[in-house]
Structures are given as C-alpha cells and as structure tokens.
Amino acid sequence: MKGKDLKALSIIELRKLAKQLHVSLKRTMTKQQLVKAIVASTRSRAISATLKKRKQPSGKIHHPPAAGRHAALGPRYEEILPAYSGITKLVLMPRDPWWIFAYWEIDRSQLGKKDLILRVYRKDNQLYASISIGDANNWYINLPEPGETARSEIGFIRADGEFKVVAVSNTVRTPRAWPSHTGYEEAMHGFSHTTPFTESYEAFEKSNPYIREDITSRKR
User: Can you give the three-state secondary structure of 109-148, one letter per residue?
Assistant: First the structure.
C-alpha cells in the first residue's frame, strides 16, 4: 500500500483502515501522521512475512533417517576389545599365600592350531605344572606352600619334541601364611601363649581343604 493512495482517503477512512490493520493511533494525529503510521505498519508486516518464509520454507520438511543422524556424530567403535593388543606378554600376580594368577596376550593368528601350554616353575627352576590352556587368556595356579617363588612360560611342543617358548612371565613370590617364628617370638618374648599360637596357626593351615585344591580346578 503506497502513500499516494492513502492521501486520497479522508481522515475517517484512514482511521477505519488503521483500525483494520491494528495500527495504534492517537486522537490528535493529523492526516499526514495517519498516512505515515499506516505505511510504516504495512512495511513492517511485509518484512516480517518475508523473513518468516525464509526461515520456514513451504512444503513438507524431510528429516534425515535416524542412522544418518547418528552417523554424523562420529564413527562407531567396537564394543568388544580385541583379544590381542599387539604386545605379547605373560604376567604373574600373587593372589594369596597359596594362589597366583596368570594372564597373557598372544597373537594366536601366527601360531595356527598349535596347542599352547602354560609351564609353571617353582624355586630353583623346577617344573611344577604343565597346563594345556586351550583358548583361555588367564589361569589361577595353586602352589603347595606359602612363600613360594614362581615364574612361568607359554609355548608349544615342536615336531622334534622341543618346547618352543612364545612368552615369558615375571617372577613373583607369594606372601607368608603365618608370622615368622623368629621375629614373632622375639617380639612376643615373655608371653606364655607365643608357641601355642604359632603351632595352632600352622595346624589350621595344614588342615585347610582349600589349600589342597587341584591346580586345574581354578580356571576362569
């Protein structure tokens, strides 16, 4: 609506038009002021409509599929960690005076279908146990006595009968199951219950059926 067309109208007609366009008016406004107010209101409405069309285009809005929205957030990661991190290792950890825990990472793809064996050595490198581990990656090993020193190896038997080592562990020592005879008795010198205490503790340790579990029964 142009100002030239509005000037041809009377004040009464301009006031009626302004009322239809919801233009706020004052009683003391002149004809020229009415024309300016109506023109300004019309321009403002036209600008608002144009901006609204730009923000919300006509027609149906197509949202991307759910998979597309998730894919834009970044790559998906495997929920299961790989069985082999790229570093071959065999680790021993003392659990208590009678048990040690072994875990390992080995690239089995390079070994084919070879039967892997876990060998455990006690003090003086004496072979204590030879366990076929299958596809396991950890094992609990029962030792006959507390305060033992142990190490282990994983490997396989070659065609010529030689044991081929694949991984070598660290050396560990299990803790004592009772106080030292010398140190404890010296500390408790003068107390009559010293000898009965140590003897009763040793008797309990030797009679405990938990100690006599078979080494192959602790697989996890």
Answer: HHCCCCCCEEEEECHHHCEEEEEECCCCCEEEEECCCCCC
